[in-house]
UniProtKB/TrEMBL annotation:
Substrate binds at residues 15, 75. The active site is at 96 (proton donor/acceptor), 270 (proton donor/acceptor). It comes from Aureibaculum algae. SUPFAM superfamilies: Formate/glycerate dehydrogenase catalytic domain-like, NAD(P)-binding Rossmann-fold domains. It catalyses: L-alanine + NAD(+) + H2O = pyruvate + NH4(+) + NADH + H(+). This is Alanine dehydrogenase. The keyword Chloroplast does not apply. Residues 4-137 form the Alanine dehydrogenase/pyridine nucleotide transhydrogenase N-terminal domain. The gene is ald. GO terms for biological process: L-alanine catabolic process. Belongs to the AlaDH/PNT family. The lineage of its organism: Bacteria, Pseudomonadati, Bacteroidota, Flavobacteriia, Flavobacteriales. Keywords: NAD, Nucleotide-binding, Oxidoreductase. InterPro entries: Ala_DH, Ala_DH/PNT_CS2, AlaDH/PNT_N, AlaDH/PNT_NAD(H)-bd, NAD(P)-bd_dom_sf.
């Protein structure tokens, strides 16, 4: 199969879909790989790194789309790419269709085959291609939240870990999934007091077992959330519902109950966000303030640490890329039920029920 690796053009998206090691494996399986010039540069990989393992370099994104039978990307295609996607072309990337009707409509119109990283499942029902980026985003949420709590950026002026004689900051984490657990681990490591909330008691038991004693668990409901937002300095949203929009757990009226300078980090922004006042931002302009509350809602947080993220992503996507390239998408999906769950749109038809429910 002819596989294309375009350069990501979404604002400040520095990742690339495959490392040279990943391309090496594809070439070893006798596939042809075209890489757009400079695609790996921001992740620390030169064009020579790719040609050394057997890829060919093409100058433009148009050439990559024109030649490839399968496009492997990191982020969803943006408007400039819609017209480049051909009928029957496989596009394997993060799509997050639930949060974008124009993207959904464009992919239906293109009659391409859209396989979404974020809905591929493994035999345990978990999301293996979302996991490493959730791990990165969960850890970054605390790193960024700690920075935006600083006064020059209109935060409360709190050092999360505190110092001797001064209480540490308080972090409230909504969701005890991958994002929540990684965020709790980082916040706890800094010495902050952490409250993590979820409706899944099994997850709360797990967190209780593995985390130090200054990480406390609490059942998530509106009453408890409203009680905690008044006293916590950094609030991290890490809610995920497979393929669907996240519920709004922090509503607009709740901002008035928070202390000015509180920081909200909504990691669920890709799926529409779990806070009513969430709107996607970029690494170029990451924050905005509503009612004196700092919002950090960057839709591609792992793009800021592309070297780590690209390697972590290739580690999990490569086996699926090779599988599709070796067998074709239909046979690959037929043989692998988890990969089949990743099939969102095929030849102009929406085949993933959560997208159908969110489409209007």
């Amino acid at each position: 199969m002819i596989v294309g690796l375009p350069k990501e053009i979404k604002n400040n998206e520095n990742r690339v879909a495959l490392t040279p090691a990943g391309v090496f494996e594809l070439v070893k399986n006798e596939h042809t790989v075209f890489v757009q010039k400079g695609a790996g540069f921001n992740s620390g990989f030169s064009d020579v790194d790719y040609t050394d393992v057997g890829a060919s370099i093409l100058d433009t994104i148009e050439e990559v789309y024109a030649k490839a039978e399968m496009i492997v990307k990191v982020k969803e295609p943006i408007a400039e790419e819609y017209g480049l996607i051909k009928e029957g072309q496989i596009v394997f990337t993060y799509f997050h269709f639930a949060s974008s009707q124009p993207l959904t409509d464009a992919m239906i119109k293109s009659k391409s085959v859209c396989i979404a990283y974020e809905t591929v499942e493994d035999k345990n029902g978990t999301l293996p291609l979302l996991t490493p980026m959730s791990e990165v985003a969960g850890r970054m949420a605390v790193q960024q939240g700690a920075k935006y709590l600083e006064k020059p950026i209109k935060g409360k002026g709190i050092l999360l870990g505190g110092v001797p004689g001064v209480q540490p900051g308080k972090v409230l984490i909504l969701g005890a999934g991958i994002v929540g657990v990684q965020a709790a681990k980082m916040a706890a490591g800094l010495g902050a007091h952490v409250t993590i909330m979820d409706v899944n008691m099994d997850r709360l038991r797990y967190v209780n077992d593995v985390m130090p004693s200054h990480v406390v668990t609490e059942y998530s409901n509106e009453y408890n959330i409203r009680r905690h937002i008044k006293t916590h300095d950094l609030i991290i949203g890490g809610i995920l519902i497979k393929g669907a929009k996240a519920p709004k757990l922090i509503t607009r009226d709740m901002l008035k109950e928070m202390h000015p300078g509180t920081v909200l980090v909504d990691v669920a922004v890709d799926q529409g966000g779990c806070m009513e006042t969430t709107k996607p931002t970029t690494h170029e302009d990451p924050t905005y303030i509503i009612d004196d509350i700092v919002h950090y809602c960057v839709a591609n947080m792992p793009g800021a640490v592309p070297y780590t993220s690209t390697i972590a992503l290739t580690n999990v996507t490569l086996q699926y890329v090779i599988n599709i390239a070796n067998k074709g998408w239909e046979k690959a999906c037929e043989d692998n039920e988890g990969l089949q769950k990743g099939l969102n749109i095929a030849n102009g038809e929406v085949v993933y029920k959560e997208i159908l429910e969110n489409s209007h």
